[in-house]
Amino acid sequence: MGTVVSFDVPAAARADGSLDAALSWLHWVDRVFSPYRVDSDVTLLAEAEVTVEACAPEIAEVIAACAAVRTQSGGYFTAAPGGRFDPSGYVKGWAVERAAAILSRGGSTSHLVNGGGDVQCVGGRPRAAAEPSAEPWRVGIADPLRPGRLALVVAAADGAVATSGVAERGAHIIDPHTGRPPTGLASVTIVGPSLASADAYATAAFAMGPKLARDWTESLDGYEAYAITPDGEVWQTLGFARHIAPA
Amino acid sequence: MRRAVLAVIMTVAGLVALLSFKTHSGDQTPAGEPTTQVPALLSGERALTGNTVATIYGPVQVQAVLRTSKIVGVNILRRPAETSMDLQIGQYAFPKLVGETLIAQSARIDTVSGATYTSGGYIQSLQSALDIGA
Predict the structure, then answer these.
(1) DSSP secondary structure string for all residues of A155-172
(2) Which residues pair with A111 in a beta bridge?
(3) Fewer Cβ within 10 Å of end Cβ, chain A: N or C?
(4) B94-132 burial, b for 16+ CB within 10 Å, e for fewer?
(5) Which residue in chain B is spatially nearest to A35 when comparing CA positions?
(6) What is the pTM assigned to this prediction?
(7) For every one of its 134 residues, what pLDDT tens digit does chain B have, with 9 covering 90 and above?
(8) Which of A1, A3, A4 is the best mutation test for B, with the most CBs of B within 10 A?
């Protein structure tokens, strides 16, 4: 889907084939879910040329998940943001989370997968044999207002960090209620166990704008939010502070 | 031409290895001279030039400047400049990406959340430059 996925994995994952399996999974997802491919299931569904039943079963899984987040977010997240079926807002985080799970199943206990700025962490960063305990991964949050700077650093042993916002290429999220890009937030970061959920929640919260997003993210069970407004104001949910990495 | 690229970074005793491949074949390397002058190297620095990477916005090529094994600078040799919009984006995005590269090294950061896929060409070209030095 035109994104870059980077892996930080133990060498064993390369030797035992689990890294290859994770890569194959991502390529498969691209073939099936890319809205830019004329022959993907997503494109064929959007053109009403096939039924859901004729598609890969993961299509129905993703449609159901998108519907759940849509309900949960009061319609601010949708699988058809421009009026046409395009679940990319869910698929990226979902695919990256599953790639991380493939590595776990292969035996890795310490890895990180970053898909276009959305990150799934497992087991903390690799440590030398002499160190007593694993340290969490350190995930920098890009500051949308100050090019080249980080807003803060999140520490995550196991868990996901997803950020939605106006980055290099300008506004790309549409408020489904107005059909226009939302303007009240520069970026929203969501931290929580699942990247599929965190990514979708970040997209929904960004579309909501600051007022709605603050209450809504506070209500999310197991997920915390950190947001920056275009004026440089910052707010976070009550439980976010414990995710901030020590300097 | 849209590409799916997978950068694989392994942290094994400081070893950085990369596997990168594309799912499409096609016109990947636009011709043309680098569009930017680069500053002269200081003593003890070496420059590694990355591949030109075709993105949907145009070609991107970067050069990493290293002192011993640390990145001390990144020069943008080619950037999309077809339209004034591309120029505007380039003027904003590339300094940001260069800054993030330098910060990521200095702040003990494992990764960055919040970049978008437009950074793909930058990362790919930078990684190919680092591969030369590995």
Answers:
(1) EESSEEEEEEE-BTTB--
(2) A122
(3) C
(4) bebbbbbbbbbeeeebbbbbbbbbbbbbbbbbbbbbbee
(5) B2
(6) 0.73
(7) 222 233 333 222 222 222 222 222 233 334 445 556 677 788 888 888 888 887 767 788 888 888 877 777 888 888 776 666 666 656 666 766 776 677 666 556 778 887 554 456 676 777 777 777 65
(8) A4
| Dihedrals phi, psi of A67, to nearest 5 degrees | -65, -40
Q: Calculate Rg over the CA atoms of chain A.
A: 18
Query: Can you tell me whether residue B76 is helix, strand or coil?
Result: strand
A111 neighbors A103 (Cβ within 8 angstroms) = yes
- How far apart are the CA of A74 and the nearest CA of chain B, in angstroms? 24
- The contacts of residue A79 (CB under 8 Å, 6+ apart) are A62, A63, A66, A67, A70, A85, A86, A87, A89, A90
Q: Are strands A137-142 and B111-113 parallel, antiparallel or unpaired?
A: parallel
Q: Is B104 on the interface with A (CB under 8 A)?
A: yes
Compare all CA atoms of chain A with the CA of B56 and give the residue at the minimum distance. A2
Please report the DSSP string for A3-64 in residue order: -EEEEEE-HHHHHSSHHHHHHHHHHHHHHHH-TTSTTSHHHHHHTTSS-GGGS-HHHHHHHH
Distance CA A6, CA B129 (A): 16
- Provide the CA B79 distance to its chain's centre, in angstroms: 10
- The pLDDT tens digits for A121-163 are 999 987 666 565 678 998 988 888 875 567 889 999 999 999 9
Record: contact A167-B103, CB cut-off 8 A: no
Question: Is the predicted ipTM greater than 0.90, yes or no?
Answer: no
